[in-house]
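Z., the sequence and structure:
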Amino acid sequence: MFDKVWGNGWRLGWAGVLAAALLAGCANAPQSRVQQDDLLNRATIHTELGQGYYEHGEVAVALKELDEAIRVDPAYAPAYNMRALVYMHLGQEAQARADFSRALALTPKDAALNNDYGWFLCQHGSPGASIKYFMTAIADPLYATPDKAYVNAGLCALKANDAGRAEQYFTDALERQPDNPQALYHLADLAFRAGRFARASALAHKLLTVSAPTAENLWLAIRIAHAAGDRDTEASAAMLLRSRFAQSPQAQALARGNYQ
């Protein structure tokens, strides 16, 4: 009798243990692909909403959406990247750096992320260290805008007082996108400062051809033409500057005859 009772009790006991283990296994089982896709979709939507609100100046709402994206999927790198950009805009360097670091830990080769983090470093005292992140972005053959990363590298090289490397990066940008206005502007400015007026004039002319005139672009063209003795170009660009940007600092410098 004792053996029988003990035997039944043993079977019932282990049946309960097995049932509990099964339930625990179900509770701890990896998420299904459908669940994972749902979380990813929700995180993507909240991140896109956050970006949209940020671009429309609703920063507080943008942060709420990005916080929710990260709550839904803590491994969704674009949400950290976007939140880092918002914190960067707000001047909250520590929070931005932490989010960039988290995003890079999740997707270290992501081109857009590397470009953004490079720019962050450049703006926060490390222009030299930023270059390798731009190069990582450019190395991705699927990156849609390598010319922009080259321009950023050029700007940061200038900030690091390396005009030679900057000129090369701007040249590389034009090889990828011949009409990139920032690359044209800075190459024209570098050539002007080096006294290579023929090259500076050609670049400034192309700049004004491929993009809408701005006070900054016109002023560069005027100074190049003035230095090169091209009075016709100087007069036409000066007339356009006065008529369209009469209140600009560049127009005021022109009125004073200050071509520096």
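Residues 40 and 73 are 7 Å apart (CA to CA). The two ends are 109 Å apart (CA to CA).

Let me know what you think.
H.
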